[in-house]
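Hi all, a correction to my earlier message: I attached the wrong file for Sugar ABC transporter ATP-binding protein. Here's the right sequence:
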Amino acid sequence: MKGIILRDIRKSYGRGSQILHGIDMTIEPGEFIVIVGPSGCGKSTLLRLIAGLETCTEGEIIIDGRRANDLPPQDRDIAMIFQNYALYPHMTVRENIAFGLELRGMPRRERHERAEAVARTLQLDPYLDRKPGALSGGQRQRVAMGRAMARNTSTFLMDEPLSNLDNALRVAMRTEIKQLHRQLGATIIYVTHDQTEALSLADRVAVFKDGKLLQFDTPEAIYDRPSNQFVAGFLGAPAMNFVAGDHLEGLMQGRDIIAGFRPEALSAHREQPAEFSWPARALLSEMTGADAILHCETPVGRLSLSIARKDLPSDPDNFWVGYAPEDALLFDAHTGNAIWPGQ
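and the right structure:
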C-alpha cells in the first residue's frame, strides 16, 4: 500500500488562472479519502495531478516515499476510474478488464484468468462475454472498477464515478465500493460533489472551495465541528440553517455572529415552548419515511427541520420552532470562521 503526500500543490493555466492554491495533504496507506466541493473548485484537477495526467505548477507529490512529479503515469502504479467509465464498446467485459494487462505484455491465458477472478469478486462473471452496450449503468461502472482492480495496484483514484447513475444505483454502488475498499485494503482517493457520498464513504473528507483546502478531517468532525460557515453549509442534508445573531437570545450577546442549526436540532411545537423559539408557518413537508423535512417561514428567515412525522404541527399555519442555544454552531459574521467556546 502506498501513502501520498501533497506539499504546497499549486496549479495555474496561464496568467491569472490559478486553479489550486497551495494544497497540503498527507494520505495514509489504506485510507479512503473523499475530496468534495462545488463544481470548479479544483478537485478533479488535483486527482489528475496525482495520476500524472497533468503537471504541477509548484509543489511536490510524494508517492510511497518517492518524489513523483516527473514520473509518467504508468510508473506511478495508480489506477484511475473516470466518470464516463471509458470502456471500449467493441470489447467484451472480459477483454475490457484484461486490456491493461495486455498492454503490459501479460500472456493471454494469464490475463483472462485474472479478469475472470476480478469479475467474480464484482459479481460480473455472468456477463464476461457481453459488450458494454448490453450492460446496465451499474454493471458498466463495475467493469471500469474491475479493469482498475486487475492491475493489482494498491491505489485507486475515482473521479465522480457514480454521477451518471440514478439514485438507487448510486446507493447500491456506494455500498459495493466501501466493501471493495475493506476487501482490498487499498488507498482510495475519491472525488465527488455529492456530500452524502462524502460522509458515507470516507475515512477522512477534504472540503475544497475555489482551489483551497478548507478542512481535512473525519466525517464526524466535519459535521460536528466545521471550520467555517461554508463547510457547515455544504456538508449535511438538509443543509444547515443560518440565523443572524441579533435574532437570537442566549448566544454571545454583543458579538457579531451567525448561528448555525442543523435541521435535527430544531423542533416544532403547537404552543410557544420557551423564550428560545420563533413563530412559524409551514411551506412544505417532505416525507422521508418515519421522518419528515419541514420547511417553514419564520421572522428570522426560512428554516428546515428534520423531525418525526408524528411531530408535524397539526396547524401548519400557526406553530412554533424551538431551539436550544447549546445546539448552535457559531461563526464570525465577517470572516465566516467558526467560533468555539473560549474564543
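Sorry for the mix-up. The radius of gyration is 24 Å.
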